Amino acid sequence: KPLFWVVVLVVAVSLSICYFYFFFSDAQVSKLTVVGQKTLTLNSIETIIWESVNKNILGVSSASIFAVNRKGIEKKLLTTFPLLKEVVVQKHFFNEIIVNITEREPVGIFCGNQSECFFIDNNGVVFQSHQVVPEGMVVIKKQQTVSVGDAVVEKNIIEGILAIQKSLKENYKIDMQEVLVSNPIIIKTSERWQLYLDPRADISLQVSKMNALLTNEITPTTRKQLEYIYLQYKDRAYYK
């Protein structure tokens, strides 16, 4: 009967589409390229990707490029490796997957309530346990318990800290040793005096006030007796 043959035709077309989608030989992923890997081992990254690419369909293995979930792979890599800042997965038809990764770059060492310290990046995310402070890096402290992958310091505060560190080093030959992220933010320098900043106010304006003071009022000789510079007040800066 006509209805019977219509049903047969629909089933046949559906099976053909499914076969082409999952099992077409020329569309099976056979090449994987990872770009941007520096610290992580290539094997560990590829293992996660292949686990997502290879599937078992009704007892038959498939690595169809059509079935590759790009966003799923990106999310799994970011979750598995906190060191990764960004992941972009691309399909190159018909048999190649290219994965571009960006690893986090440490800008300081973060220490919370626990004894363990971590690398922290310019977005304020901690991503790797590390106890030794590399030369040139600042120690950032905050009263909280943290885990790898946590965003522990606001990005604008990290940017402000780095701007102050750069200005002190390049313009006045002063090293930044430690930062306590609180209210106010307290920065300890290598010359034993401290900076106080308001984390809620525009930090770039406070940096400008600091530069004006160190350039026009506080001489290198005066700095030998300096105890602190208060920058957190809106209209004025105080020092002693």
Structure write-up:
The chain has 240 residues and is α/β, with parallel strands linked by helices. It has six helices and 14 strands. Strands 8-7-6-9-10-11-12-13-14 form a nine-stranded mixed β-sheet, with helices on one face. Strands 1-5-4 form a three-stranded mixed β-sheet, with helices on one face. Strands 2-3 form a two-stranded antiparallel sheet. β7 and β8 form a beta hairpin. The longest helix has 22 residues. 22% of the residues are buried. The mean pLDDT is 92.
The count of β-strands is 14
**Order of helices and strands, N to C?**
HEHEEHEEEEEEHEEEHHEE
Radius of gyration from CA coordinates: 27 Å
Mean pLDDT reading: 92
Distance between the termini: 100 Å
Q: What is the SS-derived class? A: alpha/beta
Tell me briefly what this model is.
The chain is α/β, with parallel strands linked by helices and 240 residues long. The chain contains six helices and 14 strands.
Observed structural traits:
6 helices, 240 residues, elongated, 9-stranded mixed β-sheet, alpha/beta, 3-stranded mixed β-sheet
How is the topology of this model organized?
Elements: H1 2-23, E1 31-35, H2 42-53, E2 55-57, E3 60-62, H3 70-80, E4 84-92, E5 96-103, E6 108-111, E7 117-120, E8 126-129, E9 138-141, H4 155-172, E10 176-180, E11 185-189, E12 194-197, H5 203-216, H6 220-223, E13 228-230, E14 238-239
Parallel strand pairs: 1-5, 6-9, 9-10, 12-13
Antiparallel strand pairs: 2-3, 4-5, 6-7, 7-8, 10-11, 11-12, 13-14
Helix pairs in contact: 2-3, 4-5
